[in-house]
Each structure stands twice: as C-alpha cells, then as structure tokens.
Amino acid sequence: MQQHPTPRVPARTTAPLYRRGRRRSALVAALLATALLTTVAHAPVVRADAPTAPTAADCPSALAGKARCYTGRDAQGAHYAIAVPTRWNGSLVVHAHGGPDLGEASDPARSTGDLERWAVMVKEGYAWAGSSYRRGGYGTRMAAADTESVRRVFADRFGTPGRTYLHGQSWGGNVAAKVAETYGRKPGAYDGVLLTNGVLGGGSRGYDYRVDLRVVYQYYCGNHPRPTEPRYPLWQGLRPDSTMTAAGLRSRLRECTGFDADPAARTPLQQRNLEDILAVTGIPERALESHLRFATFTFRDIVSTRLGGRNPFSNRGVRYAGSHDDRALNAGVERFAADPAARRDLSFDSDLTGKVDLPVLTLHAVDDPTAFVEHESAYRSTLRGAGRAHLLVQSFTRESEHSGLSDAEYATSIAALDRWARTGHRPTPRSLAAACPAVDRAYGTGCFYDPAFTPAPYASRVLPRPGGHHWPALTAGQERAWSRIDGVGIAP
Q: Can you tell me the distance from the alpha carbon of 16 to that of 160, in angstroms, rounded to the nearest whole number?
C-alpha cells in the first residue's frame, strides 16, 4: 500500500477567544488518518446508497501533489468531498455550496466542483470539507444539517481540527449563517464564519425582487403563460405539470424583450418592454435570464414540492415605479397575499435570527448581479437587532461577479478570520485592503477592496412588503415558538 506523509498539525500557541476549552492531539489525528488509509485499502463492498467512509480520490488539477483528497457519502445520502493539504496547518474550512440545485438526488459532482473552485483554501494550508446535500431543491435547514454532518465525518476520520471555519457563498451564505446559528453554539464545533456574496436576506424577504420580476414580466410580456396555455397563479413560478425547459423560457424572454440581441436588432416594443422590466425591478440586464429562471423553476420547487402548493409570497401593498406608465402597471399587475402558514414555514427554514456567538466576516462584490450587495445591509440589521453587531465585519470589493471572487481576496479573508479567532484582533475593511497585495503576489488575481463602501438599506433595492423594514425577519422567540409546531418548516 502506498504510504502518504502524515499531515503536520502545528501546536496551538494562543488560547482561542471564541471557543470554550478544547484540547487536541496532533498525534491522535495522524494515527486516525493512517488508520483511515488502511481501512480504505481493505474496504468492504457496500450498497451504492449506503453511507461510505472517506475514500481516496483524485484531487482537482490545481491541488495535484499539494493535498490528499477523499469522497464519500454520509448517513443521509449526501455525497461529500474532503481535501487535506500535505502541509496542513491543522485547521478546517467547512464549505456550504450555493444554488439550490434542483435535481432529485445528491450530486457528487457538486462538492468536488466546489473544491476545485475554492482550491485556494487548501493552498493556504486549510483542510476542506464540503457536502453536496442529500437532495436537490430548497431546504436551508436540511443543507445546514448536511454541512454539519460533513464536519463530523471529517473529525471522526481525521481527528478534531485545531480550528474549524465555515464558508458559504451565494445561497450557501444563507446555509452557513444558519449552521452558525444552529450548531455554532456547541463548544468546539466552529470558530468563525466567512460569508461571500451571500444571500443574507433569508427566504421570506430575500426573493421578493424575483416575485416582482415574475409579475412585472408577465404584465409586459403575457407569454409565461401564454393566453392559450392553462392559467395558474404566478406565485407558483410554473404550474407543477409543465414541461417547460430553461431553453423554452429563454425563447420566451427573447421573444418579448430581445434581451440577448444587439439593441439595434430589437423591435421598438421589445426595447420598451426590456427598459420597463429592468427599471421597475432593478435587475441588471446581464442577469435577467438567471433571475427569471429562479422565479420560475425554483419558485415551483419551493411552492409545489416543498410547501405542498401553498403560497409563501406576497406583493400586496407594493407600488411599482420606474416604468413608462406606472399607473397602468400597478392597475394591471397580478396581486396576491401569502398563506400565513406557508410564509411561516419558509421563514423558519431560511430566515436568520442573528443569534451567533462566533466572529463573522463577510466579503461581497459591490456589483454582484445575483445576490445584490444590499443583502449585507439586511444581515447587518439582523445582527444588530440580535445584539451581535460586534461580531460582524463586512468588506466589499469593486468586482461584478457572483459565483467567484479573486483568490487573493479569499486567502486574505480566511487569514484575517483565523487571526481574529486566535487572537481577538478584529479586522477592518482597511486592514483587509492593506493585507491583500502581499497575498496577491502568490496568486496574481488582483485586489479590489473598497474600504469606504457602505451598502444602502435593503429596502432601497428590494421593494418592502408591510412590516418588511424590521429585522431580524425571524426573531429568536419566533424560532423557539415555531419549533414546537409539528411539521413546521421544510421537510429534509
């Protein structure tokens, strides 16, 4: 059997500030890792759907020769990927992926793909563990449980890390924030949280601009559904039995707006429709199709599959503005009110209470076209409302992408979070910007921090519903009360 070098786990020199008394043994971790390799070599044949221990796998090309990689499946059926650097610093990053993807089963390619995308963490010396979640479709608490599960898998097989950090991007930011609130109070579980381009407004308010897009689009375009097709309330996103595909939706969007054509090739009506839709919803043109896909297919998953056909969305009391004729728009747009129990279940599943006991560092692109930077204002208000604002540091960059930021910024962020957890030295936007250029010498991906930037209130970008100015959207008291209701939330 081929032998691999035992990861080096440096001794802890400074007592942690955010963790209640823990002692670890690097020797135990090394022995467990060696035992694992022996176990893998003589592993019994198991059913495809049975849990599998971490099994040696090929690493992404970016990590070739720099780490040992493993894949497996947990007791709930969630595939996962793990990487341990050859020069391990003793700490772990647990990753929560975005989406949600809409496949029925756990997709093993999701966790391995994310390991490749964020290989920078492993290059910086951190072990990595990420879950593909047990199924596709919406379910923030389910995804949080599967994220916690892969942390436990890692600890069981490789020993308890020196420190453990959460990382979540996009919807994964919502998931990681939920992990911190739900599991982060357990002594020794997590030491800090890094949220990048996170959907931090939660489910009950975080998708309101897509609710608006769905109804405003239909007002102007009238082809989703067409007059000749079966009618359904737009809060469903798409009727449950529809066979529409993403390509079919793109065709309808193109037909109405010419969104992907040269402006000179659009008809006057297409140009006007496009201008009105973008002006009213505030959605960037380049992201229009992806937002409409979410408001179609993901809304169908939330409503029809997860909430039993009940409506969690509302646009009552919303006044739309910015079009060529606001009066006609507001008179003609479809209106609906949420079913209170459905809204409660979506809120319980995905809204954040702000009750965290860990340092939280966020990084957000100012021109993120998918999770608008104003999500950070919602999260700041959430932690402030929970009395936890002192645990939050927010940083912003001048980038305009959602799915990935500069590697140098990820490396700078995780190093700053680690220092904060170890020493209590709280980073600032200016200290992050100052530290990044030295890190970028190893990556060459650029540093784009904007230390002076402050996002506008969430309600300035997303039209608030009645009561939507108050944060947290889910209070700790509501969470406790609702948790006593049988069947509350979204089933795993």
A: 15
How many residues are listed for the chain in this entry?
492
Between the alpha carbon of residue 82 and those of residues 116, 282, 302, 486, the distances in Å are 11, 39, 30, 35
| Amino acid symbol at 336 | F
Which residue stretches of the chain have pLDDT < 50?
1-48
pLDDT for position 131: 97
Q: Which residues contact 12 (CB under 8 A, 6 or more apart)?
A: 24, 90, 162
Look up residue 479 and give its two tokens.
Answer: 């969470």
Torsion sign across C-alpha atoms 85, 407, 113, 60: negative
Count the Cβ atoms, other than its own, within 10 Å of residue 11. 8
Query: Which pLDDT belongs to residue 49?
Result: 62
